[in-house]
C-alpha cells in the first residue's frame, strides 16, 4: 500500500489502474480507523479491483466550537489498519492541498440538510458534500462506500450524486457495533469509563423501539416519546434530537410504513454520539 | 449527427467513444446558435475526436423578470448549424431531465459571482455553475469551450473546475463580432433597427478605451469614466455596469497592469447587452 499526499499523484495512479480496466472502490474517512471503517474497506476490496482510502479530517465540516482540533489522528495506526483491510492506496492530503489559497466553491444539498444533524450542526453538510464531491472528482471511483451510522450523510450524498449526475454507485454499509451495542465511532475514544457505559442508552433505546415496532406499534410519536423518555432516564445523557423519518427523503412521518429511519444524537458529557436503526415495514 | 434527449443515452454514447480512446470536446450552449457558438464547435472539432454540443435554455440561470420565456429557440435551426460546424452529438435535454422532481443541489462559487453581472443578476451564476457541473459529469469531456464574451462566466467556471478538482480543460475562445463591431449574441435578435445601431456604442466605447490604453493611459478610473461618458451620450443606452478589473480574479484595479478586463453591461431598450475587452499590459 502506498501513502499519497497530492491530488496529481493519486489521479495518475488511479488513471493507470482504470486504463487497465480495473474497477476503483473508494472509502472516504476522517481517519482514526475502527472496525466500521475496516468493514467498508473490506467490502470495497471484495467488489472492486483497486481500493483508495482517504484519510482527511476535513476542517470545513466542523462547526464553530466543535472538536476539529482534538479529533483523534494517527496516520501510522491508520495506514497499518487500512493495509490490513485491503487498501491499495491511502490518500492523505493536507488542508492546503484540498483548499488552496483563493478557494471559493461550495456544493450544497438543500432541505434535507436542515434537519437532524444539520439542524444542530449548521454548515456541516455543506462541508461534507463539497469535500466528497472533490474526492469523487479526484479519485473517479466506480463505487464509494459509506457507513450507515451517518444515515443522514448517506441520504445527502446519494441526493448529490443523483442531482449532479455523478457517474458512480454509492454503497451504504451496515453499522458496526461493539458487543454491548455501542455503535463504533472515532469519537468513542473521548468517553471515560462511566460515559462509555452511559452511551449504551442510545443503542438500547433504539433496540427497544425496534421491539415495539416488531410487536405492532406504528405510531411515530409514541416511538419517539418512548425513546426520549428512555434516554432521559440516563442522568449523563442530553438529547440533541430523536427523529422518526422516512429513510428515503428524511421527511417526518406520523404512521410507520415503508422504509423508516429512527435517528438520534445525544450528548454524553461533552461527547456528541449519534446512532440509528432503519426498519422496512411491509 | 444525432440528437439525444436523455442523460442515459448521451452517457452511453460518450463512454463508447472514450473506450475507443477518443478525446471528447464539449460546447455547452443555450441554443439559437450564431457564429460565436459555431467558432467554439469548430475549435472543439479541431482539438478533439468527438464533439458534443448541448442546447439547453437553463431556467435556473434566469432571474425573476428576465427573458426565460421569450429567449429565442429553434432546434431545427440549431441542429443544422451544429452539424455544419462539426458536432457529432447535439444534446437537447428537457428541464425535467435536468431537474427531476425532488431536485435539491446547487454548486456555488462565492465572491467573484457577486460583482459585474452577478450584482445585477442575483442567482444567475449559481444556475450556471450548477448546470455546467451537471453537464461535465454527464458528458465527461476532455475539453470544454466557452466564449470570452461571457468573460465573468469563464472566470467563474475556471474557478469551479479548479476548486472541485474537475478533470478537464476549459478553453476560452475569442469574441466573434459583426463587421461593425457588435458582439454576437442570441439576444441581438431582440433589437429593432434603431436599437441595433445604438448597440454599437458598447464595442465602440471599448475600442476607444483600448486606443487610450495603447496610447499610454494606465488610470482605471479615467478609462471607466471615459466609457461611461461615451455610452451616456447614446440616448437609447442605460448602463448597468462598467468595470475595469483583473482578468484573472475580477478584483478591482486602480492602475492598469497585467491581464486587464474591461467589461460592461448596457440596456438598449429592453435588451441587456454585454461586451468586454481583455488587454495584456506588460
Describe this structure in words.
2 copies of one chain form a homodimer. Chain A has 282 residues and is an alpha/beta fold. Helix content of chain A is 38%, strand content 23%. A 6-stranded parallel beta sheet of chain A has the order 1-4-3-2-6-7, sandwiched between helices. In chain A, helix 3 (75-85) links the parallel strand 3 (50-55) and strand 4 (89-91). Chain A starts with a strand and ends with a strand. The A-B interface holds A 7, 11, 102-112, 129-130, 133-134, 137-138, 140, 159-160, 163-167, 249 and B 7, 11, 102-112, 129-130, 133-134, 137-138, 140, 159-160, 163-167, 249. Strand 5 (105-109) of chain A pairs antiparallel with strand 5 of chain B.
Largest interface by Cβ-Cβ < 8 Å: A-B, 28 and 28 residues
Residues in helices of chain A, as a percent range: 25-40%
- Overall CATH architecture of the largest domain in chain A: 3-Layer(aba) Sandwich
Mean pLDDT of chain A: 97
What structural category characterises the helix and strand content of chain A? Answer: alpha/beta
CATH class of the largest domain in chain A: Alpha Beta
Shape of chain A: globular
Which radius of gyration of chain A do the C-alpha atoms yield? 19 Å
* Multimerization status: homodimer
| DSSP E strands of chain A, number | 10
| Named CATH topology of the largest domain in chain A | Rossmann fold
The tally of helices of chain A reads 10
Which band does the percent of strand residues of chain A land in?
15-25%
GO biological process, one term (chains A, B): pantothenate biosynthetic process
Pathway (chains A, B): Cofactor biosynthesis; (R)-pantothenate biosynthesis; (R)-pantothenate from (R)-pantoate and beta-alanine: step 1/1
Binding site for ATP (chains A, B): 30-37, 147-150, 176, 184-187
Pfam families (chains A, B): Pantoate_ligase
Amino acid at each position: 500500500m502506498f501513502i499519497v499526499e497530492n491530488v496529481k499523484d493519486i489521479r495518475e495512479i488511479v488513471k493507470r489502474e482504470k486504463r487497465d480496466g480495473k474497477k476503483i472502490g473508494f472509502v472516504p474517512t476522517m481517519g482514526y480507523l475502527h472496525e466500521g471503517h475496516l468493514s467498508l474497506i473490506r467490502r470495497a476490496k471484495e467488489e472492486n479491483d483497486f481500493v483508495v482510502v482517504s484519510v482527511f479530517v476535513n476542517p470545513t465540516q466542523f462547526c464553530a466550537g466543535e472538536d476539529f482540533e482534538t479529533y483523534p489522528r494517527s496516520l501510522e495506526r491508520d495506514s497499518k489498519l487500512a493495509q490490513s483491510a485491503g487498501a491499495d492506496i491511502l490518500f492523505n492530503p493536507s488542508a492546503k492541498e484540498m483548499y488552496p489559497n483563493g478557494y471559493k466553491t461550495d456544493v450544497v444539498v438543500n432541505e434535507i440538510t436542515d434537519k437532524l444533524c444539520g439542524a444542530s450542526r449548521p454548515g456541516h453538510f455543506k462541508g461534507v458534500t463539497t469535500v466528497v464531491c472533490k474526492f469523487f472528482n479526484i479519485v473517479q471511483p466506480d463505487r464509494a462506500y459509506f457507513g450507515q451510522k451517518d444515515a443522514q450523510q448517506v441520504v445527502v450524498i446519494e441526493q448529490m450524486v443523483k442531482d449532479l449526475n455523478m457517474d458512480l454507485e454509492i454503497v451504504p454499509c451496515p453499522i458496526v457495533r461493539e458487543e454491548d451495542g455501542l455503535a463504533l465511532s472515532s469519537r468513542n475514544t473521548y468517553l471515560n469509563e462511566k460515559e462509555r457505559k452511559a452511551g449504551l442508552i442510545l443503542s438500547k433505546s433504539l433496540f427497544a423501539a425496534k421491539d415495539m415496532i416488531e410487536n405492532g406499534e406504528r405510531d411515530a410519536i409514541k416511538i419517539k416519546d418512548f425513546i426520549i423518555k428512555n434516554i432521559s432516564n440516563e442522568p449523563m445523557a442530553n438529547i440533541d434530537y430523536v427523529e422518526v423519518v422516512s429513510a428515503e427523503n428524511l421527511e417526518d412521518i406520523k404512521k410507520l410504513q415503508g422504509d423508516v429511519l429512527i435517528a438520534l444524537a445525544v450528548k454524553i458529557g461533552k461527547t456528541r454520539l449519534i446512532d440509528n436503526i432503519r426498519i422496512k415495514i411491509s
